[in-house]
Write a structure and sequence with these properties.
The complex is a heterodimer of chains A (about 280) and B (about 500).
Chain A lengths: L1 E3 L6 E6 L2 H18 L2 E6 L8 H11 L6 E6 L7 H7 L4 E4 L9 H11 L6 E3 H4 L2 H10 L3 H4 L7 E6 L2 H15 L7 E6 L6 E7 L3 E8 L2 E11 L3 E7 L5 H10 L5 H17 L1
Helix pairs in contact in A: 2-3, 8-10
Chain B lengths: L21 E6 L4 H16 L7 E7 L5 H15 L7 H8 L2 E5 L5 H17 L6 E5 L6 H10 L12 E5 L7 H14 L5 E3 L7 H11 L13 E9 L8 H4 L3 H19 L8 H13 L9 H4 E4 L1 E2 L1 E3 L2 E3 L17 E7 L9 E7 L6 E8 L18 E7 L3 E9 L7 E9 H5 L6 H11 L8 H20 L7 E2 L7 H5 L7
Parallel strand pairs in B: 1-2, 1-4, 2-3, 4-5, 5-6, 7-13, 9-18
Antiparallel strand pairs in B: 7-14, 8-12, 10-11, 12-13, 14-15, 15-16, 16-17
Helix pairs in contact in B: 1-2, 1-13, 5-6, 6-14, 9-10, 9-14, 10-14
Classes of the chains: A alpha/beta (about 280), B alpha/beta (about 500).
């Protein structure tokens, strides 16, 4: 465990318990706090595994700078189920985690939903959700065209191909909450493909038209948007903005508030997950 | 104009303020401003996802191009001037599809009719919804003719029943009060004020926008932001550059018209305005206008006491010799045009009565700096410091360029047993403070015009009042022959400026 730097804008608490990423996490965290003039409190559980959650909580509590925000960046292997998480999350103002971290299963998202459904505080940023932002922009962009706006209410099918399920459920939850889908009114197909934490292909099908955003095969920074069927449009390509963990983490710590849209998305994702159990 | 229901998927997204589908027409698209500033800004907006998906760009200028030729021209310019991603790959190919061109004589109505056909084609093919933004990036002398042709060809807002029509007018808006009024008369025949976006790119700079946040998002400044605590305000826009190939234009404009009447006076308005009731464009612009309305236009007899002009001679700038203004290309060798102007103004209202506002701008000065310095009054009674210690007044500086940030100068005790006092500075810098660089001004302003947000654009009443204030100075200077050149390139400016004000901040 280490305590670096003087403080200015926030205390940035980072928890890591995986030796394979500990060094990289420390370096990236250091770069972030230097850029944003924050105090870094790095909790590296690989250094002394015998410490109890209470010890770690005390270590962090002593190093929080009074009167300025504190953010926990949770990079542990387990998430909500880890007692260290509960101990550290209890002493900070807001939480940043990645439900797709590690193998990218769905369990972390389930635990997060469960944690907040128990009435816990909601000041959380999930990188798996922030990762969707460029896709949300592009999907919304289809329906900025006034001639296509009406089709939003007639979506019948959604298919999402991605490398990990958290992003898929978040995207479904976002669509369902924004468009107020009733349970079972829209069918969806979730395909597993490619690397974790990457979305590859999203298609929304209405009565007569399919709206599709898909990564270009030869350049994964480019997404091509097609509209086929009754309202066919010429293909259009867009840049996939930087969705690296560092860029997303930076965005998360600078905007620690949890939006109403995220809350609604989480609720809708919960309902969808319950129906699939 | 068509009204559309809000897209429910847009709620809460970062780029919620993305504009409606539209086509931008750049009049003067083969010019310098287009290739250096406007095109790179549009391309960067495209990269950032701020442009609408359904978007068209039409160049309209004298140079001979077809659509493909103009696309190639744009690509070449972006390779040189793009400040973000360079034009390549699928992104460029996609952007290029939105670009078209009309080779035009600005006096020929048939070319404007050709433009109208192209806009209709964009509406059909690119689904741009009948929304048009005309950007006048031509020399100002052509503005009235273009506006007239817009009407004749049925490109005006009243003829457009499908969507909105807006016009962006580059500065200068007129060259004096009479020409500004004449231009406004032409503009009013075709556009409502709500459709006119008079651009002053200074207002798009992030530190300029931060002036209002500094004043109205903090409680500590506003109580002392008045004549009881402020001794003077200095606004400086100094350049080390000369006329840089714009000698022809500059020799008919000068520092007062080119900088003071618009950029610098707009900064003054932001410093001196009352808090607006809301953050709406008109609420803010109402308050800015009230500032100008509170500044008395000087009489001709008063001008020598409140304004100083200068013209640079040969000298050394950044270690290199440079020629005198009169030796610059396209400048009259006997020119009496000022390359430096300093003005003292008073805002005669309850808040500012008696506080001088010193404005200065010039070319070929010692340092490039744009800033606003608010100097506070001296302490009323000395308690600290040795008698030999100078106790300087506090100064709050809003730095606009090249540094962007805010600094506060205050007095502090020097460590040790004696009670020496020394001036120290507390600095905030945008780059390091937020870890991000400010986006270029044109990027912000073009996006605002597309969104229909007029907050950062100048309203006619303010433009007119600013001309009314500087007109007596222009007239007085026109009536008297100056002794030019009167300052060396690379210096602090003409000696006369120190007679106007002794405490100019050192450049």
């Amino acid at each position: 465990m280490s305590n670096e730097a003087t403080a200015a804008t926030m205390t940035f608490v980072v928890y890591v318990d995986d030796a394979s990423i500990a060094r990289e996490a420390a370096e990236r965290s250091q770069a972030l706090v230097e850029k944003h003039r924050a105090r870094l409190v790095l909790v590296d559980a690989t250094e002394d595994p015998s410490l109890s959650p209470e010890d770690r909580q005390a270590f962090v509590r002593e190093r929080l700078v009074p009167g300025i925000p504190s953010v926990l960046f949770w990079a542990g292997k387990e998430s909500i189920g880890d007692p260290n998480f509960l101990a550290l999350n209890a002493v900070v103002d807001s939480l940043v985690l990645d439900s797709s971290r590690g193998s990218g299963g769905i369990e972390a998202l389930r635990q997060l939903i469960e944690y907040f459904s128990q009435g816990r505080r909601y000041k959380v940023q999930d990188l798996a959700y922030l990762r969707l932002a460029p896709w949300q922009e592009m999907i919304a962009g289809f329906f900025d065209d006034p001639e296509l706006a009406g089709d939003l209410r007639t979506i019948e099918r959604v298919s999402i191909a991605a490398g990990s399920p958290a992003e898929q459920y978040y995207l479904l939850g976002w669509l369902a909450s924004r468009l107020q889908w009733k349970p079972g009114s829209v069918t969806y197909t979730l395909g597993s493909r490619g690397k974790p934490r990457r979305i590859y292909d999203v298609a929304l099908t209405s009565a007569g038209t399919t709206y599709r955003a898909a990564l270009q095969n030869d350049d994964e920074r480019i997404v091509c948007l097609t509209v086929e069927g009754a309202h066919a449009r010429e293909m259009h390509c867009d840049t996939l903005h930087d969705i690296s963990v560092v860029a997303l983490a930076e965005q998360a710590i600078l905007q620690p508030q949890t939006s109403d849209v995220y809350r609604a998305t989480l609720e809708a994702a919960r309902a969808i997950l319950e129906r699939t159990q | 104009m068509t009204a559309t229901a809000p897209n429910p998927l847009r709620e809460g997204l970062e780029s919620q303020r993305i504009s409606d589908p539209c086509t931008i027409v750049f009049f003067g698209a083969s010019g310098d401003l287009f290739k250096r500033m406007l095109l790179p800004s549009i391309y960067e907006l495209r990269q950032k996802g701020t442009l609408p998906t359904n978007f068209g760009l039409i160049g309209f200028a004298r140079s001979q191009y077809d659509d493909d030729g103009f696309r190639n021209y744009c690509k070449e310019q972006l390779e040189q001037f793009a400040y973000g991603t360079k034009p390549e790959g699928a992104m460029w190919d996609d952007f290029a599809k939105s670009i078209r061109y009309v080779t035009a004589d600005f006096g020929d109505t048939s070319h404007f009719e050709q433009l109208k056909s192209m806009l209709d084609e964009n509406d059909a093919n690119l689904k741009t919804g009948g929304n048009r933004l005309y950007y006048l990036s031509t020399p100002p002398s052509v503005f009235p003719g273009i506006i007239d042709q817009i009407q004749k060809a049925g490109l005006d807002p009243r003829s457009n029943t499908k969507g909105w029509t807006r016009v962006v007018v580059e500065k200068p808006f007129g060259t004096d009060l009479a020409s500004a009024r004449a231009l406004q008369t032409e503009v009013e025949k075709v556009f409502d004020e709500s459709q006119v976006y008079r651009i002053d790119h200074y207002l798009g700079k992030e530190p300029v926008q931060d002036i209002m946040a500094l004043r109205f998002a903090n409680v500590i400044f506003e109580p002392i932001w008045n004549r009881n605590y402020v001794a003077s305000v200095q606004i400086t826009a100094a350049e080390t550059l000369g006329v840089e190939g714009r000698g022809g234009y500059y020799d008919s404009a000068g520092a007062l018209r080119d900088m003071i009447q618009n950029h610098v006076m707009n900064l003054l308005a932001l410093v001196a305005m009352e808090p607006p009731a809301t953050a709406d464009a008109d609420a803010i612009r109402n308050e800015k206008f009230k500032v100008f309305a509170s500044i008395a236009a000087p009489s001709l007899a008063d001008v020598p006491k409140m304004a100083v002009r200068g013209q640079y001679d040969a000298g050394i700038v950044d270690g290199k010799p440079v020629v005198a203004y009169r030796a610059e290309p396209d400048v009259d060798p006997h020119s009496n045009m000022e390359t430096y102007a300093a003005v003292k103004l008073f805002v005669e209202n309850w808040r500012w009565a008696g506080v001088p506002f010193y404005l200065r701008s010039g070319k070929r000065l010692a340092r490039k700096v744009s800033e606003i310095a608010v100097t506070f009054k001296n302490i009323p009674h000395r308690l600290y410091g040795e008698n030999t210690d100078a106790i300087d007044p506090n100064v709050l500086v809003v730095k606009i360029q090249p540094d962007e940030g805010v600094s506060l100068r205050f007095e502090a005790k020097v460590p040790g047993q004696k009670s020496h006092i020394r001036t120290v500075s507390m600095d905030f810098n945008y780059g390091t403070g937020f870890g991000v660089q400010s986006p270029p001004a044109y990027e912000r302003l073009i996006a605002d015009a597309m969104r229909g947000d007029q907050t950062l654009f100048t309203r006619w009443d303010a433009v007119q009042r600013a001309w009314e204030i500087v007109s007596p100075i222009l007239q007085s200077w026109q009536n008297a022959t100056p002794t030019f050149p009167n300052y060396g390139a690379g210096s602090q400016g003409p000696h006369g400026a120190t007679q106007l004000f002794e405490d100019w901040r050192t450049l």
